[in-house]
Amino acid sequence: MKNKSNKIGRNALCPCGSGKKYKHCCRNSKKEISVKETYKQQYDIILKTPKQVEGIRKAGVLLMQIMAGVEKMIAPGLVTEEINTFVHEQTIRAGTIPAPLNYRGFPKSVCVSVNEVICHGIPGEKVLQDGDIVNVDITPVLNGYYADASKTFFVGTPGPDAKKIVSIAATSLKKGIQAVAPGATLGDVGHAIQSYAEGKGCSVVREFVGHGVGIDFHEQPQVLHFGSPGKGVVLVPGMVFTIEPMINLGKKELHVLPDKWTAVTNDGSLSAQFEQTILVTETGYESLTPYDL
Ligand code: MF3
Ligand code: CO
Ligand code: CO
Question: Considering the entire predicted model, what is its pTM?
Answer without folding.
Answer: 0.91
